[in-house]
Amino acid sequence: MVWAGVCYGRRTQVHFIDGIVNAQRYRDEIPRPIVVPFIHNHHLMLQHDNARPHIARICAQFLEAENIPVLAWPAYSPDMSPIEHVWDDLDRRIRQRVPVPANIQQLGTAIEEEWTNIPQATINNLINSMRRRCVALREANGGHTRY
């Protein structure tokens, strides 16, 4: 699994987790060492999707105990999240590499390199589009939008 976070003006490094990720592993390997310090240092709010490890009781209780504000997120709207569009950009960048990564080690290196190559302006533009995305989703009554 690959995890990374974005916000206006900055991003985290990418983090790799081998194997199956349950709620406890997720809490111990992502929020505890990465998310909590990042959010506290930059006075942010967490927005994550509704993946089971993210919304599990032990994660929710941990984030609450750490005073991490969490933005409520609709259950079936991954296309509304800026990070999903950043992942798409990252995927395109990796698929365009010559040569294409041939093994897991090369893929990890490519992910790290291309992650840093994504212009921060691209991330900022995606975040700036959130108001328009939310309005479009509301006008579509939760249905399809052009985003």
Mean pLDDT: 92
Please write the string of helix (H) and strand (E) elements: EEEEHHHHHHHH
Rg from alpha-carbon coordinates: 16 Å
Largest sheet: 2 strands, antiparallel
N-end to C-end Cα span: 26 Å
Instruction: Extract low-pLDDT stretches.
Output: none
Strand percentage lies at 5-15%
The SS-based structural class is mainly alpha
**Dominant shape:** globular
Identify the strand order in the major beta sheet. Answer: 1-4
Q: If helices are DSSP runs of H or I spanning 4 or more residues, what is the number of helices?
A: 8
Total beta strand runs: 4
Organism: Champsocephalus esox
Domain Tc1-like transposase DDE: 5-97
Protein name: Tc1-like transposase DDE domain-containing protein
Pfam families: DDE_3
Strand and helix map with partners:
Layout: E1 2-3, E2 6-7, E3 10-11, E4 15-16, H1 23-29, H2 31-42, H3 52-55, H4 57-65, H5 82-95, H6 104-117, H7 120-128, H8 130-139
Antiparallel strand pairs: 1-4, 2-3
Helix pairs in contact: 1-2, 1-4, 5-6, 5-7
